[in-house]
């Protein structure tokens, strides 16, 4: 399973930042867009990781674009209702979506009843990247991913893992890992992720699959043990934990829960380019970098619109074989 070819070298980051600065500099000719407030749809309730990320981005985009950027929480159907609202919006760049892996890609691949496909959304820029962790109770016998895989091979069907529901990113990612490592663990779906860590600690399930951000407080308090992290590099707040890619069982495997800014299809190219430049510039600001590090998230790759579209297509290639075997709830 190949790594994603979208991690940009430092020189490329510097070029993109300089390009964005020129595009947004007050002394340069500016396009007519935007001349009124923008709205970013968050397809979940306020207070979650998507909402936090979108509000950070909205604050900086407002400053960079010179117009208010509002956040509209449109929750329901695992994020699908928010996506559907985007696709009903005018293709003028004033209504955007802060979309993640689950609602933007996995849900439409698993459940055609949502009436949209990943290709129906126009990627503008990557604006979030959070690795997944495998956590377990402190006295669990395995201490890393290789030891977990060895246990699972010796005890097929006896180990369990919890996710935030059938078709969630945690479910699908773990199915990819099971296929890659040739092991069988029992999936325990939850309705949301709040109870997973509690049940891991009490021993109701063996493994919790969640993001670093969601597990940060439990990790910091030593209430759970982290077996591995899915990022390409080790995460600062859990520097001692090896990545999946470092293991022998999952060597080279990298996965992430990403956030992407989307527009409706047909949005003018000049508008997309301006939003892309502003979004990439925002991601390079010290305040956002510091907040991402505090949350255990990564600085996302600064992609052009074409690269963002290619990234989403590559993610489809990675996950489609697995999700084709998952039946929707």
Structure description:
The chain has 2 domains: 10-130 and 257-323, D-Maltodextrin-Binding Protein, domain 2 (3-Layer(aba) Sandwich), CATH 3.40.190; 132-246, Periplasmic binding protein-like II (D-Maltodextrin-Binding Protein, domain 2). Helices cover 41% and strands 17% of the residues. The chain has helices at 10-24, 49-65, 80-87, 101-110, 145-154, 169-181, 194-202, 212-220, 269-283, 286-295, 305-323; strands at 38-42, 69-73, 95-100, 122-130, 132-136, 160-163, 186-189, 207-211, 225-229, 257-263. It has a 5-stranded mixed β-sheet with strand order 2-1-3-10-4, with helices on both faces. It has a 5-stranded mixed β-sheet with strand order 7-6-8-5-9, sandwiched between helices. Helix 6 links the parallel strand 6 (160-163) and strand 7.
